[in-house]
Amino acid sequence: MPADRKKRKGRPGKITKKNPYPNEYDYLRQKTWKGCQCDGECDPDCCPCQKDGKQCGRSCSCPASCRHRIRHTCGCIGKLCDASCSCFKAGYACGGRCGCECGHLHLREFPQTEVRESQTLGAGQGLFAKEEIPKGTIIGLMEGTPIRHGEQSSFNMFDLAADVALECRKEGVYFVNEKKNKDSNAVFKYIESSRRREVVLFAKKRIKKAEELSAQYTSPSATPGCVYPADTGDYILAKPDPDVDELWVGKVTGTKGRKLVQVAWLLRKEDVDRYLPSRIVMKLKEDMRDGELIMTKNWDDEFTRDYIVQTVFVEERKPEGQLHKNTWWWTRTYNKKTKTVRGKY
Ligand SMILES: [Zn+2]
Ligand SMILES: [Zn+2]
Ligand SMILES: [Zn+2]
Ligand SMILES: [Zn+2]
Ligand SMILES: [Zn+2]
Ligand SMILES: [Zn+2]
User: Fold this and answer.
1) Distance 76 CA to ligand 4 centre (A)
2) Alpha-carbon distance 312 to 120, whole Å?
3) Which of 183, 212, 306, 336 could be disulfide-bonded to 179 (CB atoms 3.0-4.6 Å)?
4) Nearest bound ligand to CA 87?
5) pLDDT at position 105, please?
6) Would you state the pLDDT for residue 226?
């Protein structure tokens, strides 16, 4: 079951004569993620931008003379703007009046990156810089389709507006793995472009060639993200004993209220030595592959969500192609009661 996302919603600000744009920058209180299609000067009674309590932007079709339009130009001359540009900081792509060479944000050429095996535990694939990326560089756009999310969330959806999420296409910056803000080298940000509201990734520090990119997903509503509490069917990394520096892989098999989760454990190659009878370990050690996990039966635990470190990707079949240590999958099950291993890899 997809997770409930009520937490992110807030009430839209009240539109008054004095404050006609109370929701400017409060992206998830807005209903729209694309400009209005008004013919002439926007009318507060029917223009969706005005009803949303925000200014008209780059993708609105109202005339430049519309008094609700932002009039933002940067002073950058003859270059591609980066995160230090005043347009970017204000949350807008550059427009025709800017002196830079940005053009349309969604048509821009971004630094070269490649998708390969992540260095993050259990993360599967990740995105790496193929060239050095200077601090502030816009690394790429999240591509996808805006859809009504119906209060459900998933790894593939980034919030775009109150009821709308971007269903991300599995390419480019989609492969950026999550790290908390303090440990990551990149940041997601909303930018209003001539196409629609975009989710862009930019370098918050200098990124070396071959370095893996990372950014925080779950964040306050001013920056893009997806709220995704672990739910039934998800795989997690947990630290069940706060005093022992040991991570366990588990599958959430159920939840009780908001706090408790039931988890079935999976054993990594390095775990089987310690937790399985030696006659089984001998056999397993011979043919257990890199990245293979052994699902357990009759070995569940119940604990609070506080012990969950993060959600991870685990395939329930042998992945195609090359097997890696950080691409996790399982096909065999160890039954704790009968002390036997079942299944084939
Ligand atoms: Zn307008
Ligand atoms: Zn309008
Ligand atoms: Zn508008
Ligand atoms: Zn520019
Ligand atoms: Zn600029
Ligand atoms: Zn500009």
Assistant:
1) 6
2) 10
3) 183
4) 6
5) 94
6) 66
Q: Which ligand has the minimum distance to the alpha carbon of residue 105?
A: 4
Number of CB atoms found within 10 A of residue 123's CB:
21
Scanning the chain, the segments in alpha helix (DSSP H) are 48-51, 86-89, 269-275, 278-287
**Any idea which fold 235-342 has?**
SH3 type barrels. (2.30.30)
> What does the pLDDT average to over 327-342?
92
Question: In what helix (H) or strand (E) does residue 329 lie, and over which residues does it extend?
Answer: strand 328-335
**Residue ranges near ligand 4 (ion) with Cβ within 5 Å:** 81, 94, 98, 100, 102
pLDDT, position 10: 60
45 CA from centroid of ligand 2 (Å): 10
Q: How far is the CA of 225 from the centre of ligand 4 (A)?
A: 25
Dihedral sign for Cα atoms in the order 221, 223, 224, 230: negative
- 98, 137, 188, 237 from 103: Cα distances, Å: 9, 15, 20, 43
Q: Which residue has the tokens 């592959």?
A: 289
Q: In the chain, what is the greatest distance between 2 CA atoms, to the nearest angstrom?
A: 80
Closest CA to 149 of 169, 165, 125: 165
Ligand 4 centre distance from Cα of residue 85 (Å): 7
Does position 249 have pLDDT exceeding 50, yes or no? Answer: yes
82 CA distance to ligand 6 centroid (A)?
10
83 CA → ligand 6 middle, Å: 11
Query: What distance in angstroms lies between residue 63's CA and the mean position of ligand 1's atoms?
Result: 7
pLDDT band at 151 (very low <50, low <70, confident <90, very high): low
Cα 119 to ligand 4 centre (Å) = 34
Give the pLDDT confidence of 45-57 residue by residue, as tens digits.
Answer: 999 999 999 999 9
In the predicted model, what is the mean pLDDT of the chain? 88
Ligand 2 centroid vs 68 CA: distance in angstroms? Answer: 8
Q: What is the CA(50)–ligand 4 centre distance, in A?
A: 26
- The domain locations on the chain are 24-71, 107-215, 235-342
Q: Domain 107-215 sits in which CATH superfamily?
A: SET domain (2.170.270.10)
Look-up of token digits 């999420």? 165
185/204 Cα distance (integer angstroms): 6
